[in-house]
Amino acid sequence: MQRQHNALSSEGVSQCLKLLSDTTRLLMLKFLKEKEYCVCELTAIFGMSQPGISQHLRKLKNAGLVRERREGQWRYYAIHPSGPEYALVRSILQQIDEKDGVLQTLRQKEVTVSCR
């Protein structure tokens, strides 16, 4: 049986699912799918320390799920739309209800964030 062009190995799917099994990383990807965020914005939205947010972002970046862009002292992150896992991640993120209480609470915090 031939593997589909963009299909992942069972190990690749398993690793991706392990990363997404953490609620913070899952919701972080939900935000990063929509637009680019600075670490300080994510810190305020998720109510976590900068090292905590950076640790989650490092795991997502090492897995190829997010990309990083530097601008002066700031680092901006967004979902990596051309990574091999993107189709799987996009499909999973679509399953999150926009009316989810946790997601709504985080979105309210987003409005008040400004790091510039």
UniProtKB/TrEMBL annotation:
Gene3D superfamilies (UniProt xref): Winged helix-like DNA-binding domain superfamily/Winged helix DNA-binding domain
Keyword Glycosyltransferase: no
Keywords: DNA-binding, Transcription, Transcription regulation
A single GO molecular function term of this UniProt record: DNA-binding transcription factor activity
InterPro entries with a match to the protein in the record: ArsR-like_HTH, HTH_ArsR_DNA-bd_dom, HTH_MetalResp_TranReg, WH-like_DNA-bd_sf, WH_DNA-bd_sf
CDD domains to which the protein is assigned, alphabetical: HTH_ARSR
Domain HTH arsR-type: 5-100
Annotated PANTHER family: ARSENICAL RESISTANCE OPERON REPRESSOR, TRANSCRIPTIONAL REGULATOR, ARSR FAMILY
Name of the featured protein: ArsR family transcriptional regulator
Lineage: Bacteria, Bacillati, Bacillota, Bacilli, Bacillales
